[in-house]
Amino acid sequence: MTESLPEFADSVDPDEVATDLVVVTGVSGGGRSTVARALENVGFYVVDNLPQALMLDMAQLAFQAGGAARRTAMVLDVRSRAFSTDLAGAIHALKERGFSPRVLFVDADDEVLIRRFESVRRSHPLQGDGRLADGITAERKLLAEAREQSDVIIDTSHLNVNQLRRRVEELFGGEDVRKLRITVLSFGFKYGLPPDADYVLDARFLPNPFWVPDLRDHTGLEDAVSKYVLDQEGASTFVSNYAGLIASTAPGFEREGKRYLTVAVGCTGGKHRSVAITEELTAQLRDMRLSAHPSHRDLGRE
Asked: What percent of the chain has pLDDT over 70?
């Protein structure tokens, strides 16, 4: 005898139970599968290739099941032509029922996506009889609205599998999910601006350790380079002023429902100054009781 499903309530009380819902979407080849495995590692029940029309039913089942299912991630199949409309409607329906879904969008540069597809000798799901680039372009148009609606965007262009996994675990780990989570990201301007940055800090006003022979081959993670950078005139003021600015704006971001903030710190190559500043800024933000995590996009790239 098949047991019938219980009838769903019109809404759930977010104060009665914390049902943690994450919706994962993004470009094909961007790393959705890696994100799904990382979410499983931090205790999420992951449903892969879920049609948008079933998102509300899945959320209600997770709410009623309790236990581990209260942390549920839904990885969406983006190949539906009605994807954008379906996702917008599904997210709205979830919020109307009292849920607070977080939408994670994975992205990558077109050139990177092409290399990834070619390396595994797979065609793009939307390319049809055309080229890989045609499929990528078609999918970007399909996903434009979903990308705009996302709470957090992870650009995986310069991340390997382990780096992407660590980023997801930092964002969705065991800390209070309602708090603003800050990623302090070092980068090199010569490799381009991080597309997901909310703040961009320029550390190129400081002397470059690259021109100090004893420091050139070392990084901002090492004490000698860090001390050299942070002892420069203006460095400590630069860090403390930005730490204060971020701390003062964090409550406002939280009130507006923003859960993720990316603070990008750049120097020329992303090896010395930006890395040292990133580590120090992260430490100061943590001292201010903010949830901050360092990440180094271009370290080791030269």
From this structure: 87
